[in-house]
Amino acid sequence: MELRAKELTCNRGGREVFRDLSFGVSTGEAMVVTGRNGAGKSSLLRMIAGLVRIAAGRLTLEGGEADIPIGEQAHYLGHQDAMKPSLTVGENLQFWSRFLGDERGVEPALEAVELAPLADLPAAYLSAGQRRRLSIARLVAVPRPIWLLDEPTSSLDAPSQKRLAELMRGHLVNGGMIIAAAHGTIGLERARELKLGSA
Length: 199
What we know:
There is one protein chain. By secondary structure, the protein is α/β, with parallel strands linked by helices. The chain has 5 helices and 8 strands; from the N terminus they run E-E-E-H-E-E-H-H-H-E-H-E-E. The protein has helices at about 40-50, 90-100, 105-110, 130-140, 160-175, and strands spanning about 1-10, 15-25, 30-35, 55-60, 75, 145-150, 175-180, 190-195. A 5-stranded parallel sheet has the order 5-6-7-3-8, sandwiched between helices. The protein has a 3-stranded antiparallel sheet with strand order 2-1-4, covered by helices on one side. Strand 6, helix 5 (about 160-175) and strand 7 form a beta-alpha-beta unit. Helix 2 (about 90-100) packs parallel to helix 4 (about 130-140).
């Protein structure tokens, strides 16, 4: 499987963010998108996820499900940890699992991010790092080949960053691919870098 971008152009708010951007990411590969604030890192991830319109160019997924949009074959982890504070940790993950089309149990995913003991706690009581880990649990609960991660280590302490790196490496070993926007390292030593210039 390979995600290919050919001569992508992104416009936001009447401003050209980037243009003629081309790259490819294959099964088992990770790419870290770097650049200054405003260079288009988040916009690129949202474009792949189908949340931002492609002004010019083309995105294709060779070896993917031809009749399913690329965004529906990807997980997008953005800056906002989308959850309902009044629902418990477990109920939030159950909601997302159903929404994303997977009815399997959520316990293994909560265990993977070390939140299983908090499954019955209302999400309103979670710290910022715990909320981030609950968002990461969605990646584990519902398998999808592409992970689009925007500053994935934000709010995570050192042990949680290490655990995330383990989950990412496992995803790559199992045939997935990762595109992450980051200002620093994310724990994947072999990740390629795509540097965006500020427009």
